[in-house]
C-alpha cells in the first residue's frame, strides 16, 4: 500500500514540475496565447474535490460509522481506520496550488489570449452540473441527521463523499481534452511549453509501466481511497499523446494565426 502511494505521490510531484515549466514559459513570454483556461480550471476543481473527499474520509465520524455498517468485514469500527494516504492528500494540495498560480497568469496576461480562449460554456455547464449534484447529495444525505443515519431518498453521507471523489476523478481525467480542441481550432500548439508536454508524457508512461510491471501486493480493501484510478491515468496518457502528436508532427511548423480576443 505504501509503495503504491509513494509511486503516485512521486508522479504527482512530477506533474507539479511540469506545471511549473508552463508557468515559467508564460512568465518569460508574458503571454498565455494558446493556453486552455479549461485545463487548469478542471484540474483545480478535480484536485479540490479530491481533497474534500479525503478530508471527510479522514475526519468524519459519520463516514466511518456508515462504512463499517456497510462493509463490517473489511472496515470494522474496532479495526484499522479507512485506508488513506496523506502523501496523496499533499499531492492534491500541491497540484491545486500550482493550478492557481497558472490561473493567476491567465488573468494577468489575458490581453494576449486569442478569440477562442476563455472558460468554455461546456466547462461551465459541467462544473455547474457537478456542483448541483454535490449540493443535492449533501442536502439529501444530511436531511435526517442526527436522528436518522440515512437521508432523503436513501442517500447516505458516505455516498455523497464517494460521488464527490468520483466526480473529481472524472474532471481530472478530462482536463487535457480542452487543450486538444483549442490546438485544433488554431492549428497550432503555440503557447504550450514543450517541457510541460514532454515531462507530462514521460511521467505518465513511466508511472504506468512501473505500476504494472513491478510486483506489489495489497488487498483490494486496503488500497487507499484517495488513489487515482487506473482508467483516469490511462485517459490522461491518451490525451497527452494527442497533444504531443499535435506539437511534434501535425502542427510542428505552423505559426499562430488567430486574432487576439478581448
TrEMBL record:
Transmembrane segments: 37-59, 82-107, 119-140, 192-210, 230-252
Protein name according to UniProt: Uncharacterized protein
Taxonomic superkingdom: Eukaryota
Organism encoding this protein: Zygotorulaspora mrakii
Membrane keyword on record: yes
Transmembrane helix recorded as keyword: yes
Record keywords, A-Z: Membrane, Transmembrane, Transmembrane helix
Amino acid at each position: 500500500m505504501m509503495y503504491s502511494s509513494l509511486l503516485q505521490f512521486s508522479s504527482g510531484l512530477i506533474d507539479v514540475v511540469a506545471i511549473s515549466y508552463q508557468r515559467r514559459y508564460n512568465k518569460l513570454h508574458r503571454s498565455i496565447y494558446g493556453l486552455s483556461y479549461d485545463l487548469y480550471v478542471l484540474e483545480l476543481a478535480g484536485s479540490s474535490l479530491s481533497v474534500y473527499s479525503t478530508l471527510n474520509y479522514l475526519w468524519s465520524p459519520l463516514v466511518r460509522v456508515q462504512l463499517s455498517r456497510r462493509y463490517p468485514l473489511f472496515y470494522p469500527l474496532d479495526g484499522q481506520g479507512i485506508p488513506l494516504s496523506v502523501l496523496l492528500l499533499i499531492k492534491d494540495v500541491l497540484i491545486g496550488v500550482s493550478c492557481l498560480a497558472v490561473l493567476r497568469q491567465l488573468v494577468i496576461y489575458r490581453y494576449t489570449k486569442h478569440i477562442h480562449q476563455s472558460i468554455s460554456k461546456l466547462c461551465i455547464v459541467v462544473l455547474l452540473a457537478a456542483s448541483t449534484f454535490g449540493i443535492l447529495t449533501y442536502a439529501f444525505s444530511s436531511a435526517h441527521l442526527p436522528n436518522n443515519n440515512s437521508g432523503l431518498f436513501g442517500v447516505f453521507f458516505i455516498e455523497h463523499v464517494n460521488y464527490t471523489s468520483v466526480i473529481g476523478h472524472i474532471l481530472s481525467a478530462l482536463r487535457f481534452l480542452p487543450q486538444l480542441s483549442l490546438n485544433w481550432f488554431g492549428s497550432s500548439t503555440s503557447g504550450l511549453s514543450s517541457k510541460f508536454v514532454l515531462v507530462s508524457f514521460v511521467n505518465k508512461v513511466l508511472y504506468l509501466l512501473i505500476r504494472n510491471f513491478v510486483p506489489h501486493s495489497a488487498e483490494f480493501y486496503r488500497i487507499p481511497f484517495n488513489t487515482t484510478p487506473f482508467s483516469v491515468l490511462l485517459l490522461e496518457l491518451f490525451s497527452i499523446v494527442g497533444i504531443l502528436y499535435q506539437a511534434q508532427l501535425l502542427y510542428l511548423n505552423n505559426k499562430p494565426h488567430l486574432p487576439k480576443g478581448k
